[in-house]
User: Fold this.
Amino acid sequence: MIITNIESVPGRQITQHLGLVQGSTVRAKHAGRDFMAGLKNMVGGELKGYTELLQESRKQATERMIEEAQAMGANAILNVRFSTSSITQGASELFAYGTAVIVAEQ
Amino acid sequence: MNAHTVNLVVYIFFCGLSCFVLLIGYAFGKKNEQKHLASLANKEQNLKNRVRVLQIKQVPFPERYSNVRLVTGSVVIANDTFKKFLARWRGFLGGEMKSYHGLLSRARREAIVRVQEKALSHGANTVINIRFETSSISKGAKNALHSVEVLAYGTALIPNVEGSSDDMSQI
Assistant:
C-alpha cells in the first residue's frame, strides 16, 4: 500500500478514485500516575514517554485508515493529512484521513 | 512556641521549598535547553546536505524517483518550572511569551530533524509537502503539566538507483 501526502504518485497513473478513508483513535493524556513526568515537569526537556505514546496512537490511527482502504480494494492512499483535537480535558483524538485510489504503472 | 510561630515557620518552609524548586528548574532547565540546542544544531548541520525538506506539492523531476513514502516525526517537550513561573506572569501582564516561543521553535526543529532521519533511513534524499500539527498536552488538574507536541509529516522521495547523483543545487 503506497501512502503519501501529495496528490499523485510519480511514475504511476491513477486509474480509479475510491473515496475518503479515515482512521482515528482517542487517547487519554493524563500524567496523574506518572511520577517521572512529574519530575521532568520541573526541569523541562523532552517527555519521551508521551512522545512514544502519541507516536503509537498515530500509528494505530494510520493502520485503521489503511485497513479501510484495503477493504475498498485500493493500492494507494494519497493526500494524507493528520489532525489532533482535544476532546475533553485530558483526552485527545488523533485522526488520519486520505483519498484511497487504484494506481497503475504508466 | 505558640501557634503563630509554628505557622510562620511552616510558611517560611514552603516559601523556601518553592524557591528551591524554581532554582532547580532554572539551573537544570537551562542546562537541558542548551544541550538540546547544541545537539539540534549538530543534527541539522549533518542532515542539511543529505535530505532536503521542501514545502511544495509537485514532485520536482519525477523521473528521478522510484518510490514515495509518507514520513512523520514528532516530539513532546515541556518547559521547566522557572519558565512556567515567568510565563504565568507574562500571561497576566500581556506581551510576547519568549519562553514558550523558544519551546515551540525547538520542538519544530526537532520534529523536522526526525522527519529527515526517517526519510534517510528509507533511502530518500528529499521530503516534499511538509506539514505541521501542534497540540498542547496538559494534566487538567491545577498543576498543569504544560507541554507541547509538534508533529511534522511529508512525502519522502526515494531516488532511482541509477540516477542517484542528482544535483541538489538544481532546485
Summary: Chain B touches chain A through 49 residues (CB under 8 Å).
